[in-house]
Amino acid sequence: MKAIINTKYGTPEVLELKDVEKPIPKQNEILIRIKATAVNSGDVRLRKADPFAVRLFFGLFKPKTTILGSVFSGEIEAIGSGVKQFKIGDEVFGHTDMSFGTYAEYKCFPENGSIALKPTTILHQDAAVIPFGGVTALHFLKKASIQPGQEVLIFGASGAVGSAAVQLAKHFGAIVTGVCSTANVALVKSLGADKVIDYTKEDFTKNGEMYDLIFDSVNKMSVSDSLDSLKIYGTLILSAAGLFETLQGTWISMTNSKKIKVMTGIINHKADDIHFLKTLTESGELKPVIDKTYSLEQMVEAHTYVEKGHKKGNVAIEIN
Fold first, then answer.
1. Short-list 231, 230, 249, CA closest to 239
2. DSSP state of 319
3. Interacting residues of 19 by C-beta distance below 8 A, sequence separation 6+
4. CATH for the stretch 2-131+269-318
5. Which CATH superfamily is domain 132-263 in?
6. pLDDT, tens digit, for every residue of 227-280?
7. In 3D, which of 170, 130, 163 has the Cα closest to residue 146?
8. What is the pTM of this model?
9. 11, 65, 116, 239: which sits with the fewest CB atoms below 10 Å from its CB?
10. Span(s) in the chain for CATH 3.40.50.720
11. 275's torsion region: left (phi>0), alpha (psi -120 to 50) or beta?
């Protein structure tokens, strides 16, 4: 099968299209013919080993994981003898958690992984982009116990996580303010945001508005400045936090006088979350946002584009 291989850290050019052995499903596994995947910010960080701490988990001198990609949509081609939940021909989508490997034509998954039947209302490339931003946003909003009527601000509202967070917060009944650049104001409004702030024209930390929850989805917001915009007992979500922001958040949670909770950390992927996102997608409450679509052969170009940091929503990869 064809796959994108990276045997060293570096620029997008380290990604190479090669022929590798097609996997065979074990007793409890399904073999998926991948029809689409996506390039996310996490893929870029792993490819670059940036921050350096990536090397502590994925290989100090070279990557232990040579095939990146964490999301997928495709069709089951074979099943192990013990598989009960799925059958050959089922169209499925999901997230690999930490096993990666979806920059390829085939991938084996345990049947109890973060997988669900693909929403019937959308194409494979649309389904493939849902789990990364959708599961991240859902994890943190549920952890924050979001409530109907709460004032919620999403910083980076046009990105993969931000666009999902806007829609999910609206589903949970929140009053949502999205923050993005001028070019993305119309997009964020179309996702259901009650108000959109163009950060090139207005600083939300200086307009006097107060929020129950502030969700920074891109790690480009001033954490210290945002605290004045949070109500007492408010919540600050830093879903893309680096080491410094994580330590800063821990210190704020321990010392601030407004009893603000700061949430960071690694998320858990569960099949229940994928099923939940499937239901919202089929009902029209969650719409995948795709900026550009590339082929597997164009992976270097796709990574180059994502690394610029200006994508709207997601970048999809079609695999023929």
1. 249
2. -
3. 1, 2, 3
4. 3.90.180.10
5. NAD(P)-binding Rossmann-like Domain (3.40.50.720)
6. 999 999 999 999 988 777 888 888 888 888 788 999 998 888 899 999 999 999
7. 170
8. 0.94
9. 11
10. 132-263
11. alpha
